[in-house]
């Protein structure tokens, strides 16, 4: 079933009060963490594979389109200041390039070849890991990149919100977080996006802890880039 495109269980949204809208959205959001919990074994398997490779100078690549691509870029960009790792150790790529971060690039996600070209621009190799992020699990830009990476003996994973998708079938370590229909039908930036962000948090945080970037519960290698962090 294509959960991300299924019809919302709510209707006549334009007739609801602001309070009713907020309470309904909040009720839907409450279900996301439980959906992520069901995928913990899948998340664990992917993390273990990443850690092993990063201990041998491997890198981590996130690749996605639209909301999924932006979420990967956010997670990647926060690793250097948070954990003191070099820029380029965790990389986020989005269909349409950096300009697509702020403004959608029409049809960029429909090119099944461009994702692999974008990865090649970073001299990707067999010590690296590629995680495709696509709520639908069928975005050509992402599926094509993951398929090509796997065929080149590169470790692959994915984060999707549908079952048995082309993306999940193309990678070594699929993560399937089924959040169900969105409050606004098909608006996968909502629950699906929240689920993807939660999983990305789990991946990067757990990987960095396993790589020794946390002592006790402190970010001992973070970049002291502002007064708040110096005081901390």
Report on this model:
With 232 residues, this protein is an alpha/beta fold. It is 43% helix and 11% strand. It contains nine helices and five strands, in the order αααβαβαβαβαβαα. It has helices at residues 18-29, 32-37, 40-54, 66-83, 114-120, 140-151, 166-170, 191-210, 227-231, and strands at 60-64, 90-94, 129-133, 155-160, 173-176. The chain has a five-stranded parallel beta sheet, sandwiched between helices. Helix 3 (40-54) packs across helix 8. It starts with 17 loop residues before the first helix and ends with a helix. The model has no long low-confidence stretch (mean pLDDT 94).
In summary, what is this structure?
The protein is an alpha/beta fold. The chain contains 9 helices and 5 strands.
What are the salient characteristics of this protein?
five-stranded parallel sheet, 232 residues, alpha/beta
Low-confidence stretches: none
Helix content: 40-55%
Distance between the termini: 48 Å
Q: Could you give the order of the helices and strands? A: HHHEHEHEHEHEHH
Total strands: the figure is 5
Note the quaternary state here. single chain
Q: How many helical stretches?
A: 9
What's the alpha carbon Rg, rounded to whole Å?
Answer: 18 Å
| Major sheet attributes | 5 strands, parallel
| Spatial strand order of the main sheet | 2-1-3-4-5
Q: What structural class do helix, strand and pairing data support?
A: alpha/beta
| Binned strand content | 5-15%
């Amino acid at each position: 079933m294509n959960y991300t495109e299924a019809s919302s269980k709510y209707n006549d949204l334009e007739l609801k009060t602001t309070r009713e809208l907020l309470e309904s959205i909040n009720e839907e959001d409450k279900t996301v963490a439980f959906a992520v919990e069901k995928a913990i074994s899948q998340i664990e398997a992917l993390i273990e594979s990443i850690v092993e490779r990063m201990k041998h100078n491997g890198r981590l690549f996130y690749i996605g389109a639209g909301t999924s691509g932006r979420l990967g870029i956010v997670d990647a960009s926060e690793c250097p200041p948070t954990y003191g790792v070099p820029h380029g150790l965790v990389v986020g790529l989005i269909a349409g390039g950096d300009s697509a971060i702020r403004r959608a690039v029409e049809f960029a996600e429909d090119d099944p070849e461009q994702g692999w070209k974008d990865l090649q621009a970073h001299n990707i190799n067999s010590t690296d890991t590629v995680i495709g992020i696509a709520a639908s699990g069928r975005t050509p830009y992402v599926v094509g990149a993951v398929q090509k990476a796997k065929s080149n003996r590169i470790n692959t994973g994915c984060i999707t919100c549908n079952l048995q998708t082309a993306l999940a079938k193309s990678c070594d370590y699929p993560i399937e977080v089924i959040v169900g229909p969105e409050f606004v039908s098909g608006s996968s930036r909502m629950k699906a996006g929240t689920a993807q962000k939660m999983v990305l948090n789990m991946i990067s945080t757990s990987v960095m802890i396993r790589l020794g970037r946390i002592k006790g519960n402190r970010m001992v290698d973070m970049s002291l880039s502002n007064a708040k962090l110096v005081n901390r």
